[in-house]
Design goal:
The complex is a heterodimer of chains A (about 270) and B (about 280). Chain A has about 270 residues and is mostly helical. Chain A has eleven helices and two strands; from the N terminus they run H-H-H-H-H-E-E-H-H-H-H-H-H. Chain A has a two-stranded antiparallel ribbon with strand order 1-2. In chain A, strand 1 and strand 2 form a beta hairpin. In chain A, helix 7 packs antiparallel against helix 8. The longest helix of chain A is centred in the middle third of the chain and has 31 residues. Classes of the chains: A mainly alpha (about 270), B alpha/beta (about 280). The structure holds adenosine-5'-triphosphate (ATP) and magnesium ion (MG).
């Protein structure tokens, strides 16, 4: 049951997007998000959406997955649309009893929903095509300059790696503990909210204790394999920018320029 | 490789745990010399000090008294710490808690990465280690998708990638089923024979001791027996007094001796015992 939770959303593949350097993908996604916030013409946003969807196509990921990412925030979108449509004042478009729908309202509702949809689908395409460990690597490399001001970049990346490594193990363990407690007659997840919260204590306590034991063991195992922090450490996975990344950057810049040109001149 | 007569040497080494209310002397003046290529089984009751002693050997713990010398380098010398840990690798009891990488391949690379090996060489070391242990097909698996036996093999491969001269297994077979245990021991035996890697297997399974060519029994932080399996196990009474079992075949021969059929107990494997019994019958 609980075991079915998959970690990250990586969908293996061998497309050009999969093979891009994770740093490229991370940088482009973050900059694209900023661009989306600046854009406020419907046409530009529609084109952005088309660009993102064509990335899905290139990566060989079905649009179904694009929708999957949107699903959890669908209510939020519907809610903001309603808010925008009914509560933005401006030139009335439709008047019915006490309800007035303004032209500006419709406009901003479309803008906001398009923006949110594009934001989410673009962030998802990155997680669909990059393994969590690659993302960790990218973050470590990109934030490396912060080491100069004593930010423990390597340590944070190592913590992320270990978390990624142990999440499935801990999920397994939670499952076991739940079954063990259920076998002792604990009913988990029934009753009112306080009872339900309380029923998780017998699961969390053993989980906590065993996690500390694991952390202890792991520290010894790491030390015995000569771990001594990031100093002088090499890596098997070496990130390398290639022509693909250059090409992706150029395409990205071109599209961004086009989007802004469209916004300001049309 | 340098030919030095002893790989690991301890001189009156002691270790005292100070963190509990009354200090515990877990290891008490052990002197011993381990040669390259030896296969040692280390036995002893719970709490006899085996794990503590093992951790002294690869400088995870530093002696309270006495000294540990690995390839003529002193473990107390901080500069040589990494040299020693690289040469004397260790795998532990719980296979889950020693895998650091999110895939098998990454876990095996962890050691060489720490040693600052260049990327190309790391890759070839990983491939070699996986091949030596016979799990090349598991290269890209995530750790939680492995069986216990496979995880321990990953543990061995992870040490091999650091090019060790000694592998210590601290009850590494205790969480495995008989088949997994047998396979792991087979891998280790091959490494011992082919690569001349010294093996120290800490175990509670007497049958595993028969694979070794030297058996050390520790009790109360001291070595009480040290010799070939045949030598050590013949003294069945003494071993039982320490609170340990002897391999079943040895016990059988011991009973036969008591009943007057045999002069001495000198068999530890089923095959040897079979030969002795056939002799009696003839
Ligand atoms: N971290 C610790 N702090 C305090 N005392 C410890 C610690 N680890 C072990 N000891 C004590 O040191 C003694 C030897 O322990 P050790 O773990 O070396 O025994 P062992 O032979 O490995 O036992 P087992 O077969 O149970 O693994 C025991 O009395 C134990 O209680
Ligand atoms: Mg122990």
């Amino acid at each position: 049951m609980i075991k079915d939770i998959t970690l990250g959303q990586y969908l293996p593949g061998n497309s050009i997007i999969h093979r891009l350097d994770p740093r490229t993908k991370l940088l482009m996604t973050v900059s694209f998000m900023m661009v989306l916030f600046i854009l406020n013409s419907i046409l530009s946003l529609i084109i952005s959406m088309v660009i993102v969807l064509s990335c899905y196509h290139i990566a060989g990921i079905s649009y179904k997955y694009a929708f999957k990412g949107i699903k959890p925030v669908l209510y939020v979108i519907v809610f903001t649309v309603i808010l925008n449509v009914f509560f933005t004042s401006g030139a009335p478009l439709l008047v019915w009893k006490f309800i007035t729908i303004s032209k500006e309202g419709v406009n901003s509702a479309i803008l906001v929903s398009l923006r949110v949809l594009t934001l989410i689908t673009s962030a998802s395409i990155m997680t669909y095509t990059t393994t969590p460990i690659m993302l960790t690597d990218a973050i470590e490399k990109l934030f490396k300059p912060l080491k100069k001001i004593k930010v423990p970049v390597h340590e944070m990346a190592m913590m992320m790696t270990i978390a990624l490594r142990f999440i499935p193990t801990l999920i397994d363990e939670t499952d076991k503990i739940m079954k063990a407690q259920a076998a002792r007659g604990a009913d988990i997840g029934t009753g009112n909210i306080i009872q339900r919260a309380k029923s998780f204590i017998p699961i969390l306590v053993p989980l906590f204790i065993s996690s500390f034991k694991r952390a202890d063991d792991l520290a010894i195992a790491m030390e015995s394999r000569c771990y001594r922090g990031g100093e002088g450490r090499t890596s098997m996975r070496v990130l390398k920018f290639t022509n693909k990344d250059l090409f992706a950057f150029i395409a990205f810049v071109l599209f961004t320029i086009i989007l802004f040109v469209l916004q300001f001149f049309i | 490789m340098k030919s030095i007569d002893s790989l690991i040497k301890t001189n009156d080494v002691s270790y005292v745990y100070l963190n509990s209310i009354n200090p515990i002397k877990a290891v008490n003046k052990i002197s011993l010399s381990i040669k390259q290529g030896e296969y040692i089984a280390m036995l002893g009751r719970n709490g006899s000090g085996k794990s503590t002693f093992a951790r002294l050997l690869n400088a995870l713990l530093l002696p309270s008294e006495g000294e540990v010398i690995v390839l003529s380098k002193n473990a107390a010398n901080e500069d040589d710490l990494w040299f020693i840990r690289k040469r004397v690798g260790m795998i532990f009891q719980n296979p889950d808690n020693q895998i650091i990488g999110t895939t098998v391949e990454e876990d095996i690379a962890f050691g060489p990465e720490n040693l600052g090996v260049i990327q190309q060489e790391i890759k070839s070391r990983v491939t070699q280690a996986l091949t030596d242990v016979g799990i090349l097909d598991l290269r890209e698996r995530a750790p939680h998708m492995l069986s216990g036996g496979q995880k321990q093999k990953v543990g061995i491969a992870a040490i091999l990638a650091m090019h060790p001269m000694c592998i210590i297994m601290d009850e590494s077979t205790s969480m495995l089923d008989p088949l997994g245990r047998e396979e792991l021991l087979k891998v280790v035996s091959i490494l011992n024979k082919k690569e001349k890697i010294t093996i120290i297997n800490i175990t509670h399974h007497m049958e595993e001791a028969t694979f070794a060519n030297r058996v050390i029994i520790i009790d109360n932080g001291k070595i009480v027996e040290d010799g070939t399996p045949a030598e050590v196990f013949t003294d069945v009474d003494k071993i039982t007094k320490i609170g340990l079992d002897v391999p079943q075949v040895t016990l059988l021969l011991h009973k036969l001796k008591k009943a007057g059929y045999l002069k001495k107990v000198d068999a530890i494997t089923v095959k040897q015992a079979y030969e002795r019994i056939v002799q009696i019958l003839e």
